[in-house]
Amino acid sequence: MIPDLRRPLIVGNWKMNNTVAESIKLVTALKHLLVDSPHIDVAVAPPFTALYSVSVALSDTNMSLAAQNMFWEEDGAFTGEISGAFLKDVGCEMVLVGHSERRNLFGETDKMVNQKLQAALKSDLIPIVCVGENLAQREKDSTLDVIEAQMRVAFSDVAMHDFEKMVLAYEPVWAIGTGKNATPQQAGEVHHFMRTWLMKHYDAPTANRIRILYGGSVKPENAPALMKETHVDGLLVGGASLDSDSFAKIVKFEERMS
Ligand code: 13P
């Protein structure tokens, strides 16, 4: 069971999908479906171009707005990049950092993840920091070593009081967009490892307050079993968050359980 101090958080990562009009349509449908979800935190992460419009649409709800990425510099000659201050300016409260698609397709390193999450904290954004192993690493039985190495570099020089503001996400790369999700036991094992790591490097009260989300082919059918794991505090949903009924089903089930 999730202790009271960790409210479940469900985040929809829309990735590179939805124009402004499509985003407004999706978020309007979600607003109607999720009017009554007081025990659980919900956020959506639209593409940059739709952030402002979705922020306006969400202004009369408890749902939060997240961005999918940011740059670590504050301003200047960085063509094509977006700063934390710009994200705050359009109403974001959270930002994904180190998503595996950013790491694998755009060459983001653990060091860059560290720079981004430090910049997010400085901008008063909640970073949702993603870690996860690929298939070869899982098959070689090096999952926990990979997670450890990613956490060690990504969280270097993060003070305890800042750590409390973060959300972590375990997203096994082999489960993203593939229809293969980690079993609840596989997810539970890695989440437990991550919580133990936090206890060792910070302290037990801090580690027990941090929410660790699971992501990778989450659907209404598999979400309840994943959420039953003690250290799974929420979900980062890709494909299923593009359909208002699927996403609302996932959220509403958790709302009933909370
Ligand atoms: P899918 O749910 O489409 O597998 O995506 C997971 C993900 O990458 C969420 O950030």
Key features of this structure:
8 strands; TIM Barrel; alpha/beta; eight-stranded parallel beta barrel; 43% helix; binds 1,3-dihydroxyacetonephosphate; 12 helices; 258 residues
SSE diagram, text form:
Layout: E1 9-13, H1 20-33, E2 41-45, H2 51-58, E3 64-67, H3 84-89, E4 94-97, H4 100-106, H5 110-122, E5 126-131, H6 135-139, H7 143-154, H8 160-163, E6 167-170, H9 184-201, H10 204-209, E7 211-215, H11 223-227, E8 234-237, H12 244-257
Parallel strand pairs: 1-2, 1-8, 2-3, 3-4, 4-5, 5-6, 6-7, 7-8
Residues 13, 99, 171, 176-177, 215-218, 236-240 line the site of 1,3-dihydroxyacetonephosphate.
How would you briefly describe this protein structure?
This protein is an alpha/beta fold and 258 residues long. It has a domain at 80-182 and 199-233: TIM Barrel, CATH 3.20.20.
Describe this structure in words.
With 258 residues, the protein is α/β, with parallel strands linked by helices. The protein has a domain at 80-182 and 199-233: Aldolase class I (TIM Barrel, Alpha-Beta Barrel), CATH 3.20.20.70. 43% of the residues lie in helices and 14% in strands. It has helices at 20-33, 51-58, 84-89, 100-106, 110-122, 135-139, 143-154, 160-163, 184-201, 204-209, 223-227, 244-257; strands spanning 9-13, 41-45, 64-67, 94-97, 126-131, 167-170, 211-215, 234-237. The chain has an 8-stranded parallel β-barrel, surrounded by 5 helices. Helix 1 links the parallel strand 1 and strand 2 (41-45). The longest helix is centred in the C-terminal third of the chain and has 18 residues, at 184-201. The chain is globular and about 45 Å long. The mean pLDDT is 94. The structure holds 1,3-dihydroxyacetonephosphate. 1,3-dihydroxyacetonephosphate (13P) binds at residues 13, 99, 171, 176-177, 215-218, 236-240.
